[in-house]
Amino acid sequence: MLHIDVMDGHFVPNISLGPPVIASLRRATDLYLDCHLMITDPLAYLEPLKEAGANGVTVHIEAVPNPAPVVAEAAQLGLDFGLVMNPPTPVSAIEPYLELTSMVVVMSVNPGFGGQSFIEGALEKIEQLRKTIDSRALSTDIQVDGGVDLRTAGPARVAGADVFVAGTSVFRATDPVAAVKELRTILDRM
Ligand code: ZN
User: What is the pLDDT of residues 160-188, one digit of tens each?
Assistant: First the structure.
């Protein structure tokens, strides 16, 4: 999948891209477009994102403490829905909503900028989520986002992550295709 960081300059200080760029990506690829919404008002943007070609959206629990209306809108539009938590946010903040999600995202950096180092505390949260998801027999995926590279991907996999977002470790590599293959090789061994 392609993971797309959408930032509004409000929920996070940075501004990245929005529906027009996602529509351009849609014309260039059939890959699943996973839109990570670092925005204050995700509800207002689900329809434009769907029209642009998004397949799934993930929304910050810090932005929408009651995600039910966003879940309903995503379902209505046929978008996969996930919840994201920032490093200081405890797993307990999203546990009540796990049944509503196809994916939960553990931020392993503070959101808003690329190139940060992996926060080790994320591993404990992944482990905790893995236990809860398995104990409730849910099929929710655990995505880890931030600082994923050849050193951190393995431990995140062992902790129970299913989906790995690699930005800097791929796009700043001299050979991005080889960098993805190396990451996949490590994860396939686990
Ligand atoms: Zn992201």
Answer: 999 999 999 999 999 999 999 999 999 99
Cα 113 to ligand 1 centroid, rounded to whole Å: 9
Ligand 1 center–CA 96 separation, angstroms: 22
The CATH number of domain 2-189, selected from 3.90.1300.10, 3.10.590.10, 3.20.20.70, 3.40.50.300: 3.20.20.70
If 0-12 CB within 10 Å is exposed, 13-18 middle and 19+ buried, where does residue 95 land?
middle
How much is the pTM? Answer: 0.95
**What is the predicted pLDDT for the residue at 50?**
98
Q: β-strands 2-7, 80-85: how paired?
A: unpaired
Residues identified as active-site: 5, 145
**Ligand 1 midpoint to CA 190 (Å):** 23
